[in-house]
Records
---
Amino acid sequence: MAREGLRTLVVAKKSLTEEQYQDFESRYTQAKLSMHDRTLKVAAVIESLEREMELLCLTGVEDQLQADVRPTLEMLRNAGIKVWMLTGDKLETATCVAQSSRLVPRTQDTHIFRRVCLKYYEHEFMELACQCPAVVCCRCSPTQKACIVTLLQQHTGRRTCAIGECRPAHGRPPEKPAA
């Protein structure tokens, strides 16, 4: 279902003894209090619990696109216009929408850059992203979307067209995006 561009949700269960639960809770609490690599440690503890589970159900939801999105994107690409999708969605949702709109072909390799990318490697990120056939930036606020558009204009010297909520808050400079 995910290969077809559907957002998937897997529901499963696992019975734990009191001892297993206490062990998990202790490791989880310790990971949440960690000063270094907190996110990775929490994810590792959760992943350790997500084994040998009983599958209860599986769902697949298709994100409905507005009419004519696919042909419009195709016409833009055929005209040599690069399309970037800046969204507040999570990575998984953004990927599904990009594939279902055919902004990104299902067979195309994707590269994922984490938050530190624009914070420390702004120029390198823009160099690489501008060479890509399509770019999807997820978990962006409207202000961060505006910042990416501004960076793109500054880096390329070209015109951009931003559709949607891509305006910085009045009187404040744009914050760095979380691409």
---
Amino acid sequence: MAQILAPSAQWQMGISKGLTDATPLTTKMWGSLALKQGSVKSSAKFGVFAVKSDNSTINRLEQMLNLDVTPYTDKIIAEYIWIGGSGIDVRSKSRTISKPVEHPSELPKWNYDGSSTGQAPGEDSEVILYPQAIFKDPFRGGNNILVICDTYTPAGEPIPTNKRYRAAQIFSDPKVSAEIPWYGIEQEYTLLQTNVKWPLGWPAGGYPGPQGPYYCGVGADKSFGRDISDAHYKACLYAGINISGTNGEVMPGQWEFQVGPSVGIEAGDHIWCARYLLERITEQAGVVLSLDPKPIEGDWNGAGCHTNYSTKSMREEGGFEVIKKAIFNLSLRHKEHISAYGEGNERRLTGKHETASINTFSWGVANRGCSIRVGRDTEKNGKGYLEDRRPASNMDPYIVTSLLAETTILWEPTLEAEALAAQKLSLKV
């Protein structure tokens, strides 16, 4: 990931007024996303995947999807987005709002059937959505918005899958907010063919050539799904997500996008909204999105969500000593972090394919086989950031970002723990 220099100016989650008249990403702009690798054969464009419909039907649907209603009404569509019962499934539904809004506080709370998402019993199924962050909607355009929400009981208690609530508590702690924690998150993901659930570009039931030419590769035999990555990139920029880059990954059919630098709770909001956009784009392209940390067993790279992290003290003179103290704390809570860093991560963190062993904490300068990597520039300048390489691609960014802040800013080890760790871990570079 490119070095992180400064945080976004949009971290208050407002909508830039200057973006109101921007052109949405229409189906015509995404027409090139008709699949070439998959089993579906269609000339339909990105917005409508109608295999047997005639062109007139497709054109009428496109016209309706792209209607500009702003000359006729002040009403907008708000897409309420939340996290479902598995902890990684994204859900959403739409409602009409009487006029454009600029802040989540202007939006009403809403509810949904939690028994259908694995978040409430059937006899008391109502779950309440609290709007928390707003993004522009690249699918509908205009003043329409995407709304990141968290989830509560009717009595106002956060439900167990609401990890944002606890993260917001940690980030609002005066000690944490004074350190202005920055995050740069590298989200890896795998694109799968719809019917066979096999990576995009791979022969059905077979394997491509070994890893090597695919990372940041160019060419029809090396890059599979670039249009999806590019469409997602532009959708994120349109929405106001602080996306900082993308690249093809080591395993063919695997990609990465980076979000950040983001401040505090913003990091989780931006990653979740970026995941929602990616789900919608792959849905329209007829491709399956996988966040499995090891989608293909064997000599293939897994998928992680490396999290770059720094505090104000780390970024100032003498910051390298603060980083080493943070690494020391992280070493003492390795098991707690691993247990919160994603499901199936034991299949990925094997000590191979640029990972450390899940059972052993390690750190090093420029070492991608460690739990924590410190960059050469950080060592040279005596200040900077660290990279936690342990989180899996399906990790919850609210949990990971807040846990990093808690462990490195709020948590203090006991004297006994420090003495024991001193025997096991050397903090010499």
